[in-house]
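Can anyone check this?
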Amino acid sequence: MSSPLATALWIVGPVALAGLTQVAVIKLGLFRALAARPLDCGVVFRGQRLFGENKTFRGLVVMIVATAGWVAIFEGLAAWCHWPAGLSAPFQQAHPLLWGALAGAGYVAGELPNSFIKRQLGIAAGAAAAGAARLFFWIIDQVDSVAGVLLFLYPVWHPSGAVVACLFGVTLLIHPLVALVMFCLGLKNRIG
């Protein structure tokens, strides 16, 4: 049996690496046709786009495929290196590729409600909120994807409260680090 923190790190690892894979795909300009297709298909509600230009089909496809791939790699490493059986137990609740696809789709879906609310408040895609709302939206920006991952994985995995708490804590550290990488590569105009 592994600790809640070890389990959380094991779960976050493939998703974080999929995020970095997404960074590489963006930087290399791959799959431009999918990048040109926003998830909201240009639909407007109350004069504002639903999600904006930054949420694209490329992001959805890359996160699903890359997360599934990284989960499969993690599972293979666990078997090859004879890591503790409890560590990879969450991935064994369903086929690793299905598990990873659900986590990747959940990551993207978890960001959409926040994007919708920000667009309706007139906050541009990639921009920070002003005033007191800035801290609120910064925190939501860090953890919204974890909520989506947990929701999408619920049919195949029911983590303990301690693992959920560790997932949110680890994400509050890792998500800004990925944002820093994107900022340094010129893919984001701000870190927080």
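Reply from J.R.: I decoded it. Helices lie at 4-28, 32-35, 57-81, 96-120, 133-153, 161-184.
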